[in-house]
Hints:
mainly alpha, 52% helix, 12% strand, three-stranded mixed sheet
Amino acid sequence: MLRGQDILLVLRIQASGVDSFANLGQSIGISASQTHLAASRAMISGLLRQDLSVRKLALLESLIALKYFFPAARGGEARGMATAGSAPPLNAQILQDEGLGPVWPTSEGNMRGIACEPIYKTVPLAAAQDPVLYQYLALVDALRIGNAREQNLARAELEKRLIDK
């Protein structure tokens, strides 16, 4: 069964490639042994090949269904890092209303918003280090918590990034 760190690892590989398990783990805030276990689970699930390349169609299908397996718990107002429609790339396409947008709670965040639990606890750390990964993770959250328009925009953007390349 997949875990949140497994999805995070696959998205990190998709965003920036593979170097070593130690570096992969460090970039997403988990140990090298946890990274190896996450990669093994992702291979068993069909998201990664043995050479650690991403099976993009399988990843896309999994991300679309993610809201059913990793529902996002929403909290109160918090300081954090923008996600979903409040973060790139969707924030350029979505006119934000006067309300607070979703954020991953973190003391290093630069925005006040409504707390949204990420797919794994180290997501804000990983996103802060890699702008491409940040965009993938924000798109995933748009699928998890967004309204129908945000979900459609996120799905189209993910299809463009994963399939239309």
